[in-house]
Write a structure and sequence with these properties.
Number of helices: 6
Bound molecules: heme C
Radius of gyration: 14 Å
Structural class: mainly alpha
């Protein structure tokens, strides 16, 4: 199932705008998008403070590396291990598994496991708001 989803994602990335792509996917291009929230300054800081303790290089849980230089490519348009959602779906936070994991709503979208950060206090609301805004702005690598 996951393998075929990945194949679809690759095919979709290579195909010139498939007619079946949902509106949010067509409207969003992370390569050209802009956001007042900076991935390098704001989003990576969340991961540095709350996530890389576990999600560093080596053998991180769910094969998810969130440290500097790896986080963006491990998230954006990347299929999650625990659900059928992408980890980050540009333009659509409610379709982004990482967003559900930090809010604790991941079980409502077919996910598994615990709220992130695992066994720690939740990420502060202002940081979740930054994640929501950045994903809504098409998740640029800015
Ligand atoms: C104390 C260790 C620990 C910390 C800190 C931690 N995680 Fe995790 N993470 C895990 C474990 C263990 C799993 C797999 C089990 C589960 O989901 O509960 C996981 C799974 C995940 C997944 C699922 C990935 C997939 O592809 O399905 C995401 C997304 C995630 N973590 C994001 C985060 C984020 C974002 C942070 C920081 C806000 C974070 N984690 C902090 C241990 C941690």
């Amino acid at each position: 199932m996951r393998r075929s989803l990945l194949a679809c994602a690759v095919a979709a990335a290579l195909a010139p705008l498939p007619a079946a792509a949902p509106a949010w996917a067509q409207a969003c291009n992370p390569a050209t998008a802009q956001s007042p929230v900076s991935f390098d300054r704001d989003i990576q800081r969340i991961f540095d403070l709350h996530c890389v303790e576990c999600h560093g290089e080596g053998e991180p849980p769910a094969n998810l590396v969130l440290d500097v230089g790896h986080a963006w490519s491990n998230l954006v348009d990347h299929v999650s291990m625990e659900s059928d959602l992408l980890r980050v779906a540009p333009g659509a936070s409610e379709k982004s598994y990482l967003w559900h994991k930090v809010r604790g709503t991941h079980l409502t979208v077919g996910g598994t496991g615990d709220r992130m950060p695992f066994d720690r206090a939740p990420v502060p609301d202002d940081m979740i708001a930054q994640l929501t805004a950045w994903i809504g702005d098409c998740a640029p690598n800015n």
